[in-house]
């Protein structure tokens, strides 16, 4: 979509300034918001996730921490999908 195209475009513009732009695309996260879903929605969603669980907020934080680290210095303009193997 549009945000991915924006990320890829702006990442090229910012690269000469040594600023890396990437996206994190989380899945359904185990948060208070998700717990407000209809009772049958989450169990059915979990069945479709190969890891068999919702994404935890810490999973998303770990992805962001990695992308902000020196270990990801050569990763630019990418989308890191954090969903337990379900495309967002």
Short description:
By secondary structure, the chain is mainly alpha-helical.
Account of the 3D structure:
The protein is mainly alpha-helical. The chain has a single domain, classed as Rossmann fold. Helix content is 40%, strand content 9%. The longest helix is centred in the N-terminal third of the chain and has 13 residues, at 2-14. The chain is elongated, with a radius of gyration of 15 Å. The model has no long low-confidence stretch (mean pLDDT 93).
Mass-distribution shape: elongated
Mean pLDDT: 93
What do we call the CATH homologous superfamily? NAD(P)-binding Rossmann-like Domain
In the CATH hierarchy, the third-tier topology is known as Rossmann fold
CATH class: Alpha Beta
CATH architecture field: 3-Layer(aba) Sandwich
Secondary-structure content class:
mainly alpha
In DSSP terms, counting alpha (H) and pi (I) runs of 4 or more, how many helices? 4
Q: Order of strands across the widest beta sheet?
A: 1-2
Please tally the β strands and state the result. 2
Spans of at least 5 consecutive residues with low confidence: none
Question: How is this fold's topology laid out?
Answer:
Blueprint lengths: L1 H13 L8 E4 L5 H4 L5 H7 L9 H11 L11 E4 L6
Parallel strand pairs: 1-2
For the structure shown, list the relevant keywords:
single chain, 88 residues, mainly alpha, Rossmann fold, two-stranded parallel ribbon, 4 helices, 40% helix
């Amino acid at each position: 979509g549009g945000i991915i195209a924006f990320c890829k475009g702006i990442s090229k513009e910012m690269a000469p300034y040594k600023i890396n732009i990437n996206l994190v695309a989380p899945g359904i996260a185990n948060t208070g918001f998700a717990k407000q879903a209809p009772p049958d929605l989450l169990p059915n969603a979990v069945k479709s996730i190969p890891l068999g669980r919702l994404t935890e907020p810490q999973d998303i934080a770990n992805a962001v921490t990695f992308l902000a680290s020196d270990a990801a210095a050569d990763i630019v303009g990418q989308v890191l999908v954090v969903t337990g193997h379900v495309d967002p």
